């Protein structure tokens, strides 16, 4: 059996090594267009910033080391330019300009995804960050650069922005959307934007780079165009599946050009498989294929395709999509669907926000995080979660990703037995608390209102009741846009003073994070008031309102 | 409806506040024998050590605050000394010596568990750590103490030992078992013992305190008795359910005197419920009741009993048991069953050890942890897990606890989509890697051998093959006790040199952590050798062997 693999990073290399462990006799040829194999893709931005000091740390394997350990025939600077699926051959173009045919029994395509470069004048000056050659170029460019524009505020864009700051460069991030980090909902991402700004990164949202000059970039926003200094321009507006070869072979393509595969990673062409960022994933939350260019799935699917070719019993799984990014010490993580996407899909959902401490408040060093949970109101299934905070965020998102995989419902998060000591969590962990809130929502115990439902007056504007203390109220409170004065009765006084509230109007209760509001809402409802709790309290409302302000302020 | 709750910490208070939120009209009386309510139980050791500086940080609520917010009638210094289940009354003894009857419709027992004090001469001098009065006594005693003996090396004992060291006290920990932290298996706990010793704690295992003198403790071990200086003696050998009252009421008791309850927390006596450390839990891994005195379950069950009394639809869940402890910066965590317990129960299991980095090795600050997974070989169900390391251990154990709750099998851990960026994990997270190993074990791809199977020669002693480099081999290797010289062929040379190995003997392959060993085992098996991989590699073998040495060395 002869297996040819196109692409020697993540998925391709996982496939090659797994296949060798399963089949010592297989002939395995790996063809890589670039100079390097199996390099630390996700480490590239950190080498630019000097966080990873040694370039050699990025280079995990060489063709020689892979030959010694796994008897792989790895050929770098060998670009596959054509496939003949009928003859089962590929045409290889070497760096020397030579061409040759290589035959195969099984062909695994793992070409990855190409960074998208905006189609604007001067675009040839925009650097991208896909491979070791790219990182060498960018590292060299940082030596002389004093200013930089990063186009795109996604995961990679933010990592690059932070690392350029580490090099002392003045960085402007330009993002087409009204928010940074579109993988998160705006009221979550707003804290990431704050963190960027506090660390000297200029953020311009709802804007795009229209031209790149010699040391500048023109940025056009809703209110006009400005020229921003840019010794260095980095394009990180996303990636596009490198599916040219698959298309040439006649394979069916799916969303944004991703190669369509079945659950065994087979393309529509016999004998050809696809894995990694170029391949479409099965969507765990919908029927169709989806694009999730993440390293964890690439490695997983690389292993899987080796199992399939070796005839091992398999289990294809739909993909959830889980990701994390660190931004100047702040962690932002996400799994599954966002609210934005659920809304775009026209799906019914329930959103829950919370602001728990990462560990017991009475133990030193506790910090507050923000969590968001998205729930299918008809089945109580978890559809997604997001977290932003100083510590413990990746843990909570991983727990929820695992819960989704295990079919644990939102309410059942209440029952999870998580490791508790005061330095690590709380006896009621943030995850358990999300479950409690979800349970109360599902049972109708405490109806809730979202921040954006208070952003504009409805037909019947409710009374907004702040149940925090007078001191907290004075420091800032939810201001109903319909002109009512905010009402403040502390939760501990509510049994005595509830008579001050009108019985003929809806009451939206809020506290700081939603917990006292829940207690107050329960009290008022039992006393016959039509009360609901502002989900996530003042903090979520404020974050939500600030997304609107920030989008306005940062637009040029 | 009138509900009387005995005990105003964790479970009792969760029940009271939840019940109020569900039923504004209920009369709720909480009777607490001590001076304080709802204090930070798990924070007590850290106040002793000064990690938590303010005593007030431990006191989360007062009877007044609970009355204001939840309309609770909380009475401290009020001990319930009798129950009449027929009349539905309890007899309350106040600190002033007065007695009165209090009637109830529902009685919730949440009395907690009492620290066990060893029955030895001088035992009255032993301090325990259950409540605020205890912590005041211990904090006062640390002022003058220069030496201390901590009896018992469980979670609380180790927390106390560390915190006494923070106070500059010379600490000796005396443990009856041959290892510290009996909640973990010995080859995992050995690293905790190392950490204690490196931080100046003397550890004596397989020993007990036989007498407590004025400033000493007599310690008897297998080889004799010694007198250890002990200005301070702390008993932390475990707790016993405080079930006197339940017994007086005629409630059925279970393991170690725990109050038996059904899944709705009902005791065998109508109208009486029990929650918290005094109540038995339903065992997720067996049929019978079990004792799991942990704060997370106490809070959970307190909430649950309120739901039951308020008539909310419920879901009783069996308990897994998940716990964590920090010991001088090292984290040790566990969920589910240990190997020791599975063996004691005569159950079939498979053990898997790994030593992954907490995040990508190429990103600064990565540290190595040790993980252990226990699997039901017939169903692939996860039976338990343990972790010890500098960082990321609580996250991994929480993920596995969630996987157990969701019915995710050991092999399916391979597919979990966990948040990856190089500062947070690996593209193949330690959890995924456990899944890979489990999958290979389940499929028979790579048979494995446990460290203790190499501790003594079997009938057919295998060849032990070290596939690490010669340099690694020279630094320390697995030495077969049957006198064979260890064989060293680096994995990268094995294709060329395998002919040096005998074909008529079993070969146990090992590397440092098990990964290269897996590759080498696969190669050898495909070449026709009877090869198996040493699970967890040299590191697990060394840890295992050291448990034997340490037990011998620390015994007096």
Automatic annotation (TrEMBL), chains A, B:
The keyword 4Fe-4S does not apply. Its cofactor is FAD. Residues 458-550 form the Rhodanese domain. SMART domains: RHOD. Transmembrane segments: none annotated. GO terms for molecular function: oxidoreductase activity. Keywords: FAD, Flavoprotein, Oxidoreductase, Redox-active center. InterPro entries: FAD-bd_OxRdtase, FAD/NAD-bd_sf, FAD/NAD-binding_dom, FAD/NAD-linked_Rdtase_dimer_sf, Pyr_nucl-diS_OxRdtase_dimer, Rhodanese-like_dom, Rhodanese-like_dom_sf. Belongs to the class-III pyridine nucleotide-disulfide oxidoreductase family. This is CoA-disulfide reductase. It comes from Demequina activiva. The lineage of its organism: Bacteria, Bacillati, Actinomycetota, Actinomycetes, Micrococcales.
């Amino acid at each position: 059996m002869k297996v040819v693999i196109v692409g020697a990073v993540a998925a391709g290399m996982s496939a090659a090594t797994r296949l060798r462990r399963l089949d010592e006799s297989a002939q395995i040829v790996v063809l890589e267009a670039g100079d390097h194999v199996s390099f630390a893709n996700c480490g590239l931005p950190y080498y630019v910033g000097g966080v990873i000091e040694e370039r050699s740390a990025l280079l995990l394997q060489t063709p020689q080391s892979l030959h010694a350990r796994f008897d792989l025939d790895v050929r770098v600077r060998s670009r596959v330019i054509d496939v003949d699926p009928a003859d089962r051959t590929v045409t290889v173009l070497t760096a020397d300009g030579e061409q040759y045919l290589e035959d195969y029994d099984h062909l695994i395509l793992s070409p990855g995804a190409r960074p998208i470069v905006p189609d604007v004048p001067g675009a040839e000056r925009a650097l991208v960050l896909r491979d070791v050659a790219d990182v060498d170029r960018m590292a060299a460019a940082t030596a002389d650069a004093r200013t930089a524009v990063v186009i795109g505020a996604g995961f990679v864009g933010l990592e690059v922005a932070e690392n350029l700051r580490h090099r002392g460069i003045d960085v402007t991030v330009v993002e087409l959307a009204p928010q940074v980090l579109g993988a998160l909902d705006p009221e979550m991402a707003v804290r990431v934007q704050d963190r960027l700004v506090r660390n000297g990164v200029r953020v311009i949202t709802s804007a795009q780079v229209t031209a790149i000059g010699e040391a500048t970039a023109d940025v056009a926003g809703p209110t006009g165009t400005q020229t921003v200094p840019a010794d260095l321009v980095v394009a990180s507006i996303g990636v596009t599946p490198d599916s040219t070869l698959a298309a040439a072979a006649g394979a069916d393509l799916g969303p944004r050009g991703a190669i369509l595969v079945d659950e065994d990673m087979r393309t529509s062409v016999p004998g050809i498989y696809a894995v990694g960022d170029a391949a479409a994933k099965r969507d765990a939350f919908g029927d169709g294929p989806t694009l999730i260019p993440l390293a964890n799935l690439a490695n997983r699917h690389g292993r899987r395709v080796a199992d399939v070719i070796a005839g091992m019993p398999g289990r294809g799984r739909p993909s959830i999509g889980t990701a994390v990014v660190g931004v100047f010490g702040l962690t932002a993580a996400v799994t599954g669907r966002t609210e934005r996407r659920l809304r775009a899909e026209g799906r019914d959902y329930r959103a829950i926000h919370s602001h728990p401490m990462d560990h017991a408040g009475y133990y030193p060093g506790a910090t507050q995080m923000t969590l968001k949970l998205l729930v299918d109101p008809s089945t109580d299934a978890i559809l997604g979660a997001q977290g932003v905070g100083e510590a413990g965020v990746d843990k909570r998102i991983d727990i929820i990703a695992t819960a989704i995989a295990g079919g644990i419902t939102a309410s059942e998060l209440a029952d999870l037995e998580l490791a508790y000591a005061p330095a690590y969590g709380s006896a009621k962990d943030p995850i358990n608390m999300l479950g409690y809130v979800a349970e109360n929502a599902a049972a109708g115990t405490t109806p809730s209102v979202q921040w954006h439902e208070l952003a504009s007056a409805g037909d019947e504007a409710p009374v907004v009741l702040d149940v925090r203390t007078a001191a907290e109220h004075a420091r800032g409170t939810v201001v109903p846009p319909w002109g009512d004065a905010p009402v403040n009765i502390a939760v501990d006084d509510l049994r005595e003073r509830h008579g001050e509230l009108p019985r003929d109007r809806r009451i939206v209760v809020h506290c700081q994070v939603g917990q006292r509001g829940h207690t107050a809402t329960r009290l008022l409802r039992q006393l016959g008031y039509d009360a609901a709790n502002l989900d996530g309290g003042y903090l979520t409302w404020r974050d939500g309102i600030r997304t609107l302000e920030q989008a306005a302020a940062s637009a040029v």
